[in-house]
Amino acid sequence: MKFLARGLFALIFMLSLQVQLFAEYLYKDEVIYNPKFTEEVESLGTELFNKTGISLRLLILKELPTDMTMYAYEQKVLKELKEPTVLLTFSELNSQIDIEASEAGLYKYFDKKQVLSPVTSYVQAFIMAAVYSKSFDDFKNIMGNTGGTILPLLGGKAKKNMLTGKYSAAMFNGYLDIAQQIADSKNIELEHGFDSKSNQRTLFYVKLFFYSFVFYAIVMYIRRIIYRRRHKNG
Fold first, then answer.
1. What average pLDDT is seen over the chain?
2. Which of 23, 66, 134, 136 holds its CA 20 to 30 A away from the CA of 182?
């Protein structure tokens, strides 16, 4: 039995090592370790590079090295790479996420502020602006920062055994968003992009669920206000 257990452990180790060896665009993964996730990132990254010449790499860290900022870590990685590269980096224990490019000219192909926005839609932005803005300038800033594809998913609650699923969904969503923006900027169509029918259908249901949730929240908020006013003098 011990021999079988050791053999199984060795097999699992070799398989995981093989996935890491062949992972080029999932440049580092210290958290998720999901072969299907790796395969999806590799397929999209390979297609994007073959069609645009831009390498989009994903780094998923458990924790940043001691006394090193995320920006410094990203610059260190970028120096190791030769081709034009965009890095999407996430550190779990540091609760940080960032996007950096090896060349300043690469930023024109995607909107970093939009990808990293904590707000998904104008509806959500309007609600946040109405609640949190203290001036008209604050209102405009919140309304002008929408379309986030990573932080809204990362900010969602998840059970401990579901964390890696949340991370993989959020990071692939952002990775796909950046890839699609780069492709659109170069007038390239991606088979694995947002334009495919399956992805359009998925996005439709995600948006439907989100707007349903927002509508429900608004209704409950209005009902709470009415209830408080009716019982204010009670």
1. 80
2. 23
Q: Looking at the structure, do residues 96 and 48 belong to the same domain, yes or no? A: yes
Residues 97, 208 contacting (CB under 8 angstroms): no
Do 54 and 182 meet the contact criterion of CB atoms below 8 Å apart? yes
Token duo for residue 128: 């946040």
Quick: pLDDT tens for 81-111: 999 999 999 999 999 999 999 999 999 999 9
Identify the CATH number of the domain in which residue 99 sits: 3.10.310.50
Write out the residue range of the structural domain in which residue 62 sits: 22-113+159-192
Residue predicted with more confidence, 203 or 20? 203
The amino acid present at 195, given as its one-letter code, is D
Select from 193, 190, 183 the least CA-distant residue to 52: 183
Number of domains in the chain: 2
**Nearest CA among 39, 176, 53, 160 for reference residue 106:** 53
Q: Residue 125 class from Cβ within 10 Å (0-12 exposed, 13-18 middle, 19+ buried)?
A: buried
Tell me if 19 sits within 8 A of 36, measured CB to CB: no
225 has pLDDT over 90: no
- Over residues 140-160, mean pLDDT: 81
